[in-house]
Every structure is written in structure tokens, then in C-alpha cells.
Amino acid sequence: MFKKVLIANRGEIACRIAATLQEMGITAVGVYSDPDRRAMHVRTCDEAYPLPGKTSAETYLRGEKFIELAKLHGVDAIHPGYGFLSENEDFAQACHDAGITFIGPAPSVIRDMGDKIIAKETFTKAGVPVVPGWSGDTAIGIDALKKESAKIGYPVLIKAAAGGGGKGMRVVQKETDLAVAIEAAQREAGAAFGDSRVFIEKYITNPRHVEIQIFGDSQGNAVHLFERECSVQRRHQKIIEESPSPALTPELRAKMGDAAVAAAKAIGYSNAGTVEFILDQSGNFYFLEVNTRLQVEHPVTEMVTHRDLVRAQLAVAAGEKLPFNQADLKQEGHAIECRIYAEDAARGFLPSIGTLERYIEPRGPGIRIDTGVSHGSEVSVYYDPMLAKLVCWARTRDEAIDKSIRALDRFVVMGVTTNIAFLRDVLSHPEFRAGNLHTHFLEQHAIATSPPGGVPSEALIAAAIAARLGRRAATPSQGFDVAAIGPWESAGPWRGP
Ligand code: ADP
Ligand code: ADP
Ligand code: MG
To answer: How far is Cα of residue 88 from the mean position of the Cα atoms in its chain?
Structure first.
């Protein structure tokens, strides 16, 4: 097993990976940009080294810098987390070339799966159902493209081959809009991914997003760890995820799981990955893409399977056999993850930056919080404004919803605006409770546009001012003593360089 692993990431995922490394007796090496100098992940890691600069491009996207640090400090392996360099085949290859293990699949697999056109072709051959569509050279001209779209049937979706993070997609309702949409998608894809290739897909109306966690090892074994339903999305970005999906029967679950394992085997997949599908209203499922990394929402799977996915990633990366086979894996109870963001739902979800004047997490049985912030942390403009992931486990879905709502009510964040009230509105909606989810759930029920419930902002401001002045301040809504918690400096020794 590795002795020293560098985490090429920041925030909650860096802290989460460090926790498993330390459990396994492996030294966790962190990195930090200038704005992250005092971040939680720096204190959590056993060693931490600076990446001078502020923006992601200057810091967490500097592959060569990670390799240099790894060589200098005797690191055996690099865990990329998610985002940043996690799906960058050049970085994975550079690690291998430098004799450092990249904790993830082979570079060639990352490359092929990063191209949605290649991925769809590969899985069509492997017998995995894919969304009907067309791909090819758009230079065939608009008349030919109109013919292809008519064959697919409107509405169609123009997607970027290199797409990710919901970017580079355009829905086209009718033929007269096709040319403009293709040009726009090509422009956006070119700017975002440096690759303007697009393809056309049938646009499925109000589908569910249901994905399967897969895991493979270098000895050709592959299993799935069931599904996560991620239909609650805003701009194609997931907000709430859960497992099991309320839409799957045991038969459909087995079928989707088998399809995902077939996909994994078709590409010789090693390490953790996710096969994303959309599920239409008649129960047909179609392959969307493979994410070749640990997913943001992986804790939901960990809670229902009682497995540590990062531990399994390390084992497989070190050349060991998968620590579980399919028969070992069971899905027990129900888990829901809410992504807590520093953003203002009432103002178009603008990121809200500032200092966390108060930050108190809910506690209780079945509550897991993955975070990279604490009392006093700065939320900067430079990175993703996700503060924490609240993951609640209970025996049934109803209990998990109730537990999540209670936990959100007790989650105190002051100094920045959060989406906590918004998340509460979603979980409290009768259609959410009924499990009637689809990817336009939020628009259909106009949840984002409803005024935020809970504490009036004036009360929060008053409490934050009181707190700053060092007086004892009770939260206006929850009524418990927020001043009881100490300043963040008391949270642990500085473990920087
Ligand atoms: P998940 O299901 O893990 O949330 P996402 O597609 O939302 O997957 O991506 C996870 C993280 O990776 C997010 O921070 C997202 O912004 C980032 N990301 C995804 N694809 C890309 C990409 N092509 N380029 C840059 N960042 C990306
Ligand atoms: P990304 O790489 O940006 O995550 P995906 O292909 O995974 O791109 O799609 C992201 C989201 O866009 C899906 O979760 C779904 O909500 C929507 N979507 C993608 N393809 C289709 C489609 N053919 N029909 C309807 N919705 C789709
Ligand atoms: Mg996706």
C-alpha cells in the first residue's frame, strides 16, 4: 500500500480523502492556493505545500506543479478528487511517466470517455442502450443536418462531444432553430473545452437522471454499487441526490446495474466511475456518459452500502483485487444528499462570498457532513461556492426526508447567504415526497422562484453583527446558543509546512 498520497484538490473532497488516508495509516499531503492558506483541508492533511496564485488556472490546475511536489516530498500516488484535473488524461499520463500512481482509471480510458461520441459508439457495440441520435462531421451542411434531426424527431438536443458541467447543450424544438443552435453550441463548446465538436441527440422530455456507481480493478473484475437518483438539477447541475431511486423496481435496478457493468467491462474499467443514464417516463433507460472519477455524490452510495469508496480506490490503484464482489454488496436503507451552497436562491443563485461568522452543523444519528469549511472560513470568488454536503441516512425514504429537513433547520450558517431554505422547500414539496422527480422538477414547481422560507435576512444580519461584537447571540429561528462554539482557530493545531 502507498505510504504517502498527494491530494490534488481542495475543500470538502480534500478533507474527505485525507480522512480515509489517515485511517489507513497513509500520510495525506495537501496543497493550497493563496486564498486557501488557512483552509480546513490544509489543517486536515498531515503535510501541506503552497501553490502560489489565486485562480484555479494558477493553482489547482497546475499538473506539472503537483508532480514536482510529489517528487520532492516522496509521494507514491496522487488522488485528483473531482473537478480540476480528475478527468484530464494528460495529467494522468504525466503521473505515470513520473512513476507516480494516478488514483483513477487508465489515461486512455479517461480520454475515450471524455469524448461523448466515442463513449456512445463504444457502448452501442457493447449492447448498452444509448440515446438515439446522430454524430458525424457537421461539415455535411445544414440541409443534411436537418434531415438527420428530422429522422431523430424533434425536440433534439445539441451536445458538446467534450461536454461537462452541463455546458455546451442546446435544446431545439423545431427545424428553423437548428442552424442557430448548432452554431451556438459549437461556440460555447469551443470556448469551454477547446473542442467545438457537437452531436445531436433525441431530447427526452422530463426524464430522470439515474446513475450507477461502478468499480473495476486491474484484474478485469467489475461490479456496480447500485444507483443514485440525481434528478433534482438546476442548469443540468445536481443539487439533491439519493439512493435508492424511488423510480426503480428491483428488476429495473438489476437491468441498469448489469448494463453499467457491461459498459465497465467493455472498456476494461479500473477504479471508481459512474455510468450516467436518463430514464424516461416509460421506464426506458439510455446511457448518457461515464464520469471517470469519484463523484461529488459518492457519500450517498457509501451510506447505503456501508463501503468506503476512497479506501477501495486506493486498494485498486495499488494493484489489489476489488475488496468486494457483486454478491457482497447490499443496498440498505435510504440516503439523501443536499449540496449546501453559498448562493442566493432569491437573487438568481448568485454566489455569496464572505466570512462564515457562524457555522454550526447539525448532529445526530445517521447524519454525515462532508465539508471543507468551519467557523471563520472565507468563501472566496475563486472556487466553487459549495460549503458542505449534508447526507442523511434512515431506514426508509420518508424518514430520510424528515431527517434531512430537521437537519437543514438546525444548520446554522451566517455571514453568507445559503441555499438551505431553498433545499428545505424542495424536500418539503409534496411531489418530492411522492418521489415524482424529473430533471425539470424545480422549474415545473417553480421552487427556485418562491420566496425563501425560514429566517428573515434582517434577523440573520442582526445576529451576525451581535456575534461579531462578541456578544452572545442566539439564532433567531433555532433558539439555541450559537456563541457556545469557539473560534475556528481552536479547532485544531495548524499542520502546515
Ligand atoms: P458530479 O456528478 O460529480 O457533480 P459534475 O458533472 O457536476 O459531476 O462535475 C463535478 C465537478 O467537476 C464540478 O465542480 C464541475 O464543475 C466540474 N466539471 C465537470 N466537468 C468539467 C469540465 N469539463 N471542465 C471543468 N470542470 C468540470
Ligand atoms: P454533462 O457532461 O454536462 O454532465 P450529461 O450528458 O451528463 O452532460 O447531461 C447532463 C444533464 O443534461 C443530464 O443529467 C440531463 O438532465 C440532461 N440531458 C442530457 N442529455 C439529455 C437528453 N438527451 N435528453 C434530455 N435531457 C438530457
Ligand atoms: Mg453528466
So the answer is: 16
Name the residue at shortest CA distance from atom 20 of ligand 2: 288
Ligand 1: nearest atom to the Cα of 230: 2
* Dist. CA 39–CA 32, nearest whole Å: 8
Chain-centroid distance of CA 287 in Å reads 18
From the CB of residue 497, how many other CB atoms can be counted at a distance below 10 Å? 11
CATH number at residue 381: 3.30.470.20
Ligand 1 centroid–CA 356 distance in Å is 25
pLDDT in tens, 228-248: 999 999 988 899 999 999 999
- Minimum-distance ligand 2 atom for the alpha carbon of 168: 3
- The answer to whether residue 301 is domain-embedded is yes
Q: Which residues pair with 285 in a beta bridge?
A: 279
Asked if pLDDT for residue 309 goes beyond 50, the answer is: yes
Do 342 and 219 share a domain, yes or no? yes
Residue 349 or residue 200, greater confidence: 200
% of the chain beyond a pLDDT of 70: 90
What is the rounded CA–CA span in Å between residue 42 and residue 373?
11
Question: Does ligand 2 come within 6 angstroms of the Cβ of 229?
Answer: no
Q: Is 237 in the pocket of ligand 1 (CB under 6 A)?
A: yes
Question: Cα(first)–Cα(last) distance of the chain, in Å?
Answer: 25
How far apart CA 398 and CA 383 sit, in angstroms, is: 34
What is the model's pLDDT at position 468?
59
What are the CA-CA distances from residue 133 to residues 98, 148, 266, 304, 420 (Å)?
41, 8, 21, 35, 38
Q: How far apart are the CA of 42 and the centre of ligand 2, in A?
A: 35
Give the Cα separation of 208 and 432 in Å (integer). Answer: 13
307 & 416 share domain: yes
Backbone CA torsion sign across 306, 310, 315, 321: positive
Pair 417, 483 in one domain: no
| Cβ atoms within 10 Å, residue 311 | 15
Average pLDDT score over residue span 118-135: 96
Could you read off the pLDDT of 375-434 as tens digits, one per residue? Answer: 999 999 999 999 999 999 999 999 999 999 999 999 999 999 999 999 999 999 999 999
**pTM of the entire predicted model:** 0.89
- Give domain status of residue 451, yes or no: no
Shared domain check, 239 and 318: yes
Q: How far is the CA of 166 from the centre of ligand 3 (A)?
A: 7
Q: How many domains does the chain have?
A: 4
pLDDT bracket for residue 464 (50, 70, 90): low
Look up the domain containing 469 and give its range: 457-491
Count CB-CB contacts under 10 A for residue 487. Answer: 9
Q: Which residues neighbour ligand 3 (ion) by CB within 5 Å?
A: 276
User: Residues 477, 374: one domain?
Assistant: no
CATH number, domain of 33, equals 3.40.50.20
Are the C-beta atoms of 238 and 232 separated by less than 8 Å? Answer: yes
